[in-house]
Description:
- By secondary structure, this protein is an alpha+beta fold.
- The protein is about 40% helix and about 25% strand.
- The chain is built from 8 helices and 8 strands, in the order αβββββαααβααββαα.
- The strands form 2 sheets. Strands 1, 2, 3, 4 and 5 form a 5-stranded antiparallel beta sheet that branches. It has a 3-stranded antiparallel beta sheet with strand order 6-8-7.
- A hairpin with a 2-residue loop joins β7 and β8.
- α3 runs antiparallel to α8 and α5 crosses α6.
- The radius of gyration is 18 Å and the shape is globular.
Amino acid sequence: MNANHLLDQLPAAELRRLLDKSVHVPLRGGQQLNTQDLPARALLFPLQGFASLVTPLDAHPLLQVGMVGREGVLGAQLLLGGITSPVSVLVQETGLAWALSAAALRQQLPGSPGLRRLLMRYLLVQQRLSATAAACLHFHALQARLARWLLMGQDRAHGDGFAVTQEGMSHLLGVRRVGVTVAAGRLQEAGLIRYHRGRVTVSDRTGLEAAACGCYAQDRANYRLGMRFGPDGKLRAATH
């Protein structure tokens, strides 16, 4: 197991060729991996930690439109010949990733149908997740959105918690800090989370899922169905 769900789905021969051309790179909390509209030079398959996909709008702080950890890949647009990044990428949780350069990817693709199929499916899944995120931001209450965001972070973190500031959460969720303070306080009073000195820990996973908007469960289902993973988490064979 490579700790990245997409890599674990590749045929053994394709995986060996990909890893032979890849290098381990650290992911450091607060690091900006890609900048919107500037060149993206590599595919990154997170093994540990996770990153937020963010976009600027006028003079507003960066707004999160997605999150990627060991379930996904960063830079999948390179499959389509896209050189620039459609979003900026900020590391939220320190970790590690496999990096495959854009040049090495171009060399790998002709003999790697499994990799091409995974990247194409993942691009389509990201489109669906981004659409859900936009609707969620408009229609759902902050506390439910915060619960969803915390669940997404825990899914990609090591253990029950991860580092994040209330100011950081307010920027990523597109709200004022006082709103996050109130919403996080209510979740903590309900015994669902613990927040102390910039670190949040999920205390009651089931309760937090109940407090989250339906977008969390919908995202998980869309990922599994879009990637064509079976109930066991394995990739289904391609159909024609």
